[in-house]
Amino acid sequence: MASVAVILMLVNRRLYKQGIRCNALHVCVLAGLLSLLVAFAAGSCRKLITSVYVIALVAAVISFLLLQILFVVMLTPKPPLPPWLPPWVSRLFEPLSPPEGKPRVHTGRHTEQYMKRKYLMLLGILAASVTYQAGFSPPGGMWDNGNPILHDMDLPRYHAFFHCNATSFVASVVVIVVLLQRTVKRHSAPLWAMQTAVVLDLLGLLGAYAAGSCRN
């Protein structure tokens, strides 16, 4: 329902401006991603160990989002920042758009970073879709009682598939959430962090494929 609300806001000219002004669009996107995490944790876990692993990953993502919201609420660009804060903390919350009255300068570096963010978002969405579906339909299928066949036939391979797939899914959601934030810094550090998350995402995808598709 959050996804449908986002689509309706974006296709309606009267709704999307109001939705952006009152942050309704951001709230719907955040609610959709958090619901996706909870649904993945509830639907893909069969045992206590795997449940604890996925719940820990989801809790880490939610804690990251809460810290971001807390810093955004506490730190505003107008008053001076507290002197005890490290410089990198204040730089993380610099606005993407230049201050009012200053023209935008479209340099080659800016265009290159914009294209990189687009490709990272594309990879994140693709991996999230694949890993989410694989979490509910593990390789080998399911028994009539709902347990994965691979779990009973080859337990180590199932654990390798599950942990790689879950790690890749959570890394995808982290990349999407970070790229959707307005406060992403334009310099190289956050971009490298997102690229590292995408590399972890793709490595987890490869590991899940190797564990789920090999029979011998």
Automatic annotation (TrEMBL):
Q: Name one GO cellular component term.
A: membrane
Organism superkingdom: Eukaryota
Pfam families cross-referenced by the UniProt entry: PGG (PF13962)
The PGG domain is annotated at: 116-215
Tell me which UniProt keywords the record has, alphabetically: Membrane, Transmembrane, Transmembrane helix
InterPro entries attached to this UniProt entry: PGG_dom
Tell me the PANTHER family matching this sequence: CASKIN, PGG DOMAIN-CONTAINING PROTEIN
Q: What is this protein called?
A: PGG domain-containing protein
Q: Which organism is it from?
A: Zizania palustris
Q: Supply the source organism's classification.
A: Eukaryota, Viridiplantae, Streptophyta, Embryophyta, Tracheophyta
